[in-house]
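Please go through the protein record below and see whether the fold suits the sequence. Record follows.
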Amino acid sequence: MGSRSNWDPANQGEIMATQTINSFRSITLMALSLLCSSVALADEQEDMQNRLNEMVMSQPFNVADNAKLEAYIEEATKQGTPPVSTPSKYWRKGYTCADLRRYSWNDYRDCSYFHRYNGYYWPY
């Protein structure tokens, strides 16, 4: 209880002012830290997007895919091979064969051949 004897009510205002200033400093430092980290995060995301764009644009658009598809369909038609009748696992309502290209070349090819052979798309 010896600490109570050193307590001076006259210093209470000074102590509160010091605590308020310290709290303000802490909040200001946290806000600045948060601002800096969010700016760094935005810069990092922009850099990642730029790298992704470079990767995509560095790959040529492959027109040969259409020639390869046409050759496959022509050969399968000549041989009388029936198309795959089971839809791809990625097949969704409202899709066309072009929507399957992002998932699998084989699914795109099979869908295209089915569509050309039957005149309609896979059922849902």
Q: What stands out?
A: The mean pLDDT is 83. Residues 64-118 form one domain. Helices lie at 2-5, 12-58, 64-79, 105-118.
